[in-house]
Amino acid sequence: MTAYNDGGRESSPGESANGAGSAPAAPRDDAASPGGVTRRGFLQSIGASGLAVAGTSMMSAAVLADEAPPATPAPAEAANASGPYTVHFIVNGVAHKLNVEPNAVLLDVLRDRLHLTGTKKGCDHGQCGACTVHVNGVSVNSCLSLAVMHDGDQITTVEGLAKNGKLHPVQQAFWEHDAYQCGYCTSGQMMSAVAVLHDSRVPADDHSLREAMSGNICRCGAYKNIVAAIQDARGKMRRA
Ligand code: FES
Ligand code: FES
Q: Which residues of the chain are in CATH 3.10.20.30 domains?
């Protein structure tokens, strides 16, 4: 059973109707805290910064050519750390040369060495999709991939989706559709969504979309809005 069930999120017997599980019911969007901060306002503030900084199957590298701008030199940071293996790869258009341990995981290198913390560590076992990045145009769970395997690769993280200060249509649609609650899964959802929308093998109907996105788990159960956002982005990308 996939988490992207038709008709919205799946529920277990112990979960409440609002999808919040055993946690207290979420406040209404317009319910202000004692400090005057509304839930919507809070989410918009973190969403704007998160999506902007960020700015989520298989597909050809060609269809994501816009993710591979000419490489620019990396800041001096990365090669300084220790490690017996040297890898060169391009991340979001920036060329990096890194010394890494043989067991260094790509996710950890992206987050801890390159400080690209938009990519999240959820399960660390290839089961949740929070760590999804694109490698040469293909979606990869970066928690399952060793950095030494990526010498010469083009990598795109969620920070590389936006172009020239403009959100990717998928990011914009997630924003407009409130397609997140805590936001922890969101970068992985968006990376997978971009990949799915470029994959001509995935039909455009909701059922096929849910199936294609089933590797990305949202513990908050925002599936209904995520599907709506991706379909909205599909339409806008077609018209662009
Ligand atoms: S953290 Fe990689 S799949 Fe969950
Ligand atoms: S928005 Fe919280 S896990 Fe998806």
A: 62-160
**Which residues are near ligand 1 (CB < 6 Å)?**
121-124, 126-131, 141, 143
Position 82 confidence tier, pLDDT thresholds 50, 70, 90: confident
Pick from 132, 175, 181, 230 the residue to mutate for probing ligand 2's pocket: most ligand atoms within 8 Å of its CB: 181
Across residues 173-194, what is the average pLDDT?
98
CA of 197 to the centre of ligand 2 (A): 21
Sequence-distant (6+) residues with CB within 8 A of 178 are: 40, 43, 222, 225
With a 6 Å cutoff on the Cβ, whether 181 touches ligand 2 is yes
9-55: pLDDT as tens digits: 433 333 333 333 333 333 343 344 444 444 444 444 434 444 444 44
Q: Which CATH code of 1.10.560.10, 1.10.150.120, 1.10.10.10, 3.30.2350.10 fits the domain covering 39-57+163-239?
A: 1.10.150.120
Distance from chain centroid for Cα 98: 24
